[in-house]
Each structure stands twice: as structure tokens, then as C-alpha cells.
Amino acid sequence: MEANRASFRIVLRWLPAVACMAIIFALSARTGGELDGWLPWARKLFPGLETFDPVHYVAYFALAVAFAIGFGFGRMNAWRCLLVLVLSVAYGATDEWHQSYVPGRSPDWGDLLHDGIGAAVAVAAIWLWRRARLLASSKNYSGS
């Protein structure tokens, strides 16, 4: 019975990652014409950045956080942070490959770079959060 609960908790922890990957897949399956309706609106927010697509940063930031939740957010160490970054970029690469089959879309190294930047910012934030928590708990433990 306890093993079933533990397994269920593990599945629940990974659901955000699965949901993020499904959303990214669904968005990348949209044709170029479908995207033309909202990309100009997003680019108006950032004048002068014609090639800027904030969705990549947000999506892969969220995916990296979701992977960290799957691995156990409170147990993120350097190796797990690196693994989260590698998994995020690897998923970004598969997403770019997927787009090569979508009409009006093509793989783009720049998009993969933006995916990696979004994931790296998330990993850096997770790492800093974890280090701050460890520092705070060591100060509390030492009685300071």
C-alpha cells in the first residue's frame, strides 16, 4: 500500500513536465499561418527585436521548472540541475526536428538557443534558491 502511494506521488510530480511537453508539442504543430496571427502582437511589446519570440523563453523556463519538480525540487543539486538543462535542450532539439514536418515551419538554431536560454535561467534560479535555502537552514541549525 505504501509503495503504491509513493509511486502515485512520483507520477504526480512528473505530470507538470508531461503537460509542458504536450503544450510545447501542440504549439509547435501549428502551421506558420496560424502563428502569424499572434506573433506580431508579441513582437510589438519588444520593438526592434523582430526575431525575438518570448514564447521560447517562457516555455522552456516552465519546462525546466517542471523537470525540477519531477526530480524533487527540494533535492536539486548540481548534477540534477545539469540534467534538467540537458533534458530541456534535448526536448527543444526534438521540437525543432518536429517542426520540420509542419507546413510553413522549419527548424531554427536560434529557436533552440532561446529554448536553452530559458531553461538555463530557470536552472540558475533553482540553483540560487536551493543554495539560499541551504544557507538559511545551516544558519538556523547553528543557532545564529
TrEMBL record:
Superkingdom of origin: Bacteria
Pfam families per the UniProt record, alphabetical: VanZ
The keyword Membrane belongs to this UniProt entry's keyword annotation: yes
Chain ranges passing through the membrane: 12-29, 55-74, 81-100, 112-129
Classification via InterPro entries: VanZ-like
Keywords: Membrane, Transmembrane, Transmembrane helix
VanZ-like domain: residues covered: 19-129
UniProt cross-references to NCBIfam families, sorted A to Z: vanZ_1
Designated name of the protein: VanZ family protein
Organism of provenance: Cohnella xylanilytica
Gene: vanZ
